Amino acid sequence: MNFIFQSSPWWILVCLLVGAVYAFALYQPIPRFVGSGTATGGFDKRTTYGLAALRFVVVSFLTFLLLNPLIRSLRTLTEKPKVVLAIDNSESVAAAGRPALTKALAELQTLQKQLTDKGLDVSIHTFGDSISGDLTQIPFTQRTSDLSGLLSSIRSDYEGRNLTDVVLVSDGIFNQGLSPTFGQYPFAVQTIGLGDTIPKKDIQLKGIIANRIAYLGNQFPIKAEVVSSGFQGRAATVVLRQNGKELGRQSISLGKNETFNQLTFQATATQKGVQHYVVDVLPQPGEFSTRNNRQDVYLDVIDGKEKVLLLALTPHPDVKALRNILEKNQNYELDVRILTGTPAEATPPADKTYDLIILHQIPDNGGAGTALIQKYLAKNTPVLFVLGNQSSMGPFNTSNPVMQVNAQPNQSDKVTGVFNPEFKQLNLDPARLDILSKLPPMLVPYGEFRLQAGSEVVLWQQVGSVRTTKPLLALNVTSPRKTAVLAGEGLWAWRLEEYALTDKQEVVDELIQKVIQLISVKEDRRKLRVYPIRNEFVAGEKVIFETELYNDIYERLYDKPVRLEISDEKGITRTYNYTPTDANSRFEISRLPEGAYRFRASVTVNNKAEQASGQFVVRDLQLEALNTTADHGLLRQLSQQTGGKFYNASQTEELVRTLTNRPHPARLTSTEEMNELINWRWLFFVVLTLVTIEWGLRKFYGGY
Description:
about 700 residues, alpha/beta, Rossmann fold, Immunoglobulin-like, 5 domains, 14 helices, 35 strands, about 35% strand, extended
C-alpha cells in the first residue's frame, strides 16, 4: 500500500506550514497582568504546546486532504485447486440394483473426504437436486440424462476459477443433449463407471412414429419399433388400445438374440379432440424390466378442414390448376362447381357454409352467377376473384374492395408478373420469385387499374420489358371481407412452364397458397383467451397458462378473478381460482399426472360471462427405461479426450493418488485497487476525535 499524489509532493510542505501558522496564531502567548502587573500566558507552557500540536495536526491533515491523494493497494488471494464430483443421479444408474449403488456412494463419500484432507476444494454437482453432506442419500430419480449439459454448466459456473478436475460418476447413458465427447472442456474429466455393461434380457418398445394431427373420419398409421435381446426363437405380441379397448394386435418373431422389428397399426379418428392411444408389448417371462414395454400416443383429432368453394363460369385449365394447388393442403376441403354444367354440378348445397370462395370469371357478362355471389358476399366470406375474358367489370368493381378496373371491351394485355418487394405480409423469397419473369404471359383486361384504400400489391404487371404500376395480384385484409384479386387468366401455363424449367411446381403454388391462407385466416375476437404456453408438457413439470382479458374496445383488463376447470380422461375435474395482474398474467399448476386434459376458463365482465376452452397433454417420458445397459466406452473416450482416466467404482483409492500426487499449485490472484484517501471513513472519526480532545482541554483549562 502506498500513496500516489496527483500534484507535486512539495505541496505537503505548504500543508505543514499552514498548520503551523494556524497553531501559532491561535496559541501564541497572550500577555495578561496579575497583581503587580507581571505578564503570563493563558495556559501553562506544556498545555499550550500540546493544544498547538493537536491544532497543527488537524489543520495540516485537512489541508493535505485538499491535495486529493490516492491510495494504491495490492490484494493477493490464494485459491486452492478445485475438484467437482459430477454425479449422474438419473433413474438408469439405479437400475443395476440399489445395494451395489449404495456401496459405490459410500466409497465416493470416502473419496470426497480424502481429497478434502489432501488440501483440495471439493464440491458436488448433479442433475438439479440439492445435495447434503451424505452422498448415500442422493435420490436417483431424474427422468433424463444430459451429461453434456451437466459438464457445460460446470464449465460455466467455474469459469476463471482454479478448477483442475471433474470426476464424472455415471453409467455413460445419455438421452438428452449432445454426446459429452463433442464438448471442449478446460479441465480433465476423470470418470467412474457405474451400472452394468452386460445387455439385459429384455424387450423394449424403442419408439413410436405417429402424426400429431389427424382429421375426423380419416385413417392414420401408428408405427411401433420393438427391440429385443435374449429372447431368440420366441414370439411377442404388440397391442394397440384406446381407453382400455383393444383396437388391434400383431405378433412379431424374435428369431435372433438381438432383433429389431417395426410394425404398423391403422387406426381411425372417430372422435374430435386429443385422443390417447397406448401401444403395449405383452411381457415375456424373465424380462429384466417391463417399464419400457409401453408407450403413449396422443393425437389431436380435428374437424378443422377449411371448406373452400371454387365457383367457375365454365370449364377452364385455371380451374384445374387451382384445384391441384388447393388439394396439396390437407387442411382444405374443396368443392368445385361449374355454373354452365348440370344443375346438380352447378349449385352448391344450400345449407353448407364455406370459409373461402374462389370466383373464376364471376361476375360474368351473362349474369349467370349474380344470385349466388350476392348470397355469399352478404356473409362477408373471404373471396379470391380470378378475372378472365368472360368477367363483367361493372359488377366486379362494385363487389370487391381491392381494385377498380376501367377496361376496354374485348381487349386484353399479355403481361408477366413482377414481385413487389414492399409487400411484407407474407414470408416470400424474392429470389425464388424471379422465375416469374420466365413464365408465359397472362391475359389481363386492357384498361386503367386503380387500387382501393387499404389494398396491397403482391405482383405488378410487366408488359414485355416495361414494368407498369398496374396490379396483377393484390389483396385487402383490412376491409370487413378479406379479398384478393388475380387480374388475369393463365395460371395453368405458369405451373406447366415452371415444371418444364425446374421439374417442380413449388414457387407458383406457394404464392397462391399463401395468399389464400392470408385472406382466409380467421381473426380471434374473443374477449377471454386462456391457453397453455405449450400443447404438451412432461410429467413433473409445471403446466403454465397464459390469460388475456379484453373489454369491448379490446383493451387489456386485469384483476378479474378467473375460474379454471381441468378435466382428465377419467372425467375427474380439478378447479382453480386465480386473478391475473398486470405484473403476472400466468397461472401455474404443479404435479398433474400423465394424460390428456380439457380445460374451461370463465370470467365475468360487466355482468356478462366470458369463456375459453382448450386441451393439452401431459406426457410421461420413460427415457431412462429405454436403455439400462451402461456405456463405459463413452466414459473412457471422454476421459482420454480431456486428459483424464477411467476408473471402476472400486478404484477410488487409485483416483485419490492420481489427483493428489500430481502437482496442483494454488492459484494466486492479485488485485490492484486505487482509492481516494478522503473515502476512508474512519479518518473522519480520527479528525473528529482530535478536534474534540482539543476543544475539551481548552474548556477544561478555562480557554475560550
